[in-house]
Fold this protein.
Amino acid sequence: MIGVPGSSGPRRARLAAVGYYVPDRRVTNAELEQIVDTTDEWIVSRTGIRERRIVAPDQATSDLAIRAASNILESAGCAPEEIDVLIVPTCTPDQLFPSVAAVTADAIGAHGAAAFDIQAACSGFIYGLAQAVALVESGLARNVLVVGAEVFSRIINPADRSTYVLFGDGAAGALVVGDDDQGPSGFLGFELGADGSKGDQLTIPVGGTRHPASQAFDPADAYLQMNGREVFKFATRVMEDSATRLLDRLGMTIDDVDLLVPHQANQRIIDHAVARLGIDPQRVFGNLDRYGNTSAASIPLALAEARDAGVLRPGMRVMMVGFGAGLTWASCLVRYEPT
């Protein structure tokens, strides 16, 4: 539940827990060779992806979000009724409304919690974290759950090999909590932005009020459409620019970052950003080869796996950086302080 700003005194926000859920079904590049005109070598050399997870026929985005939310709460030792706000970054909701967040809150027992979705595509998780921190540090909420959840397998065109091989399904997120002490925030800073003039470079033309699905349309327009070359150029520039702007504002350098967790979209984009930022690749975590691009779930899924692998440890300064449809971008620097 949302309170009155500042009514319970100042709070510092901290990243208290991460968690995830992915569907059981693995789809390898070899399987995709039977569906589209492609090869394992072509996919790996151009993207770095070897397999991805795909939902079962009876699963939707909220089913993944529910499982991920429960995993996060279990990791934190937090009861569902302690959640004040649940935010679900997603661009593949079950339907336009009710929100995935409302469905998820009800299913996990977070009754009475404020619940809403946000749509910033692959940048969505960091956008959601920024909202969570604002809610906590203003005193409006104490415990905010952010769960990025996507089922991209339902919006990609099997006839388009340039996009069909890229995406996977999954859900992952984090719990942001408020401490009553006067110490500095565990979240050192955010850098968010968008360039709507390039929005048509990554879009789904049909399904909104501009072109409702109730009107006649080309079936291909109901699927994701991407200008891969332009998005690649945007991503390779903005990943470095956003991270650098944030570090400059904080008076820090890349050497102050213990772990970099970039959006898992394309290995060539990640390698370019790592080289331009000048960070040791040993301080970069990725799982793109096993999950593909899971959009808003991408960064928290990598965070949770880094924790499980012992790579993400308490006290580490973690930089997250991503980009997505909009076109949007986002960076965050946070100290990991698990419960």
About this structure: Residues 187-288+311-335 form a domain with the Peroxisomal Thiolase; Chain A, domain 1 fold (CATH 3.40.47.10). The longest strand covers residues 169-179. The mean pLDDT is 96.
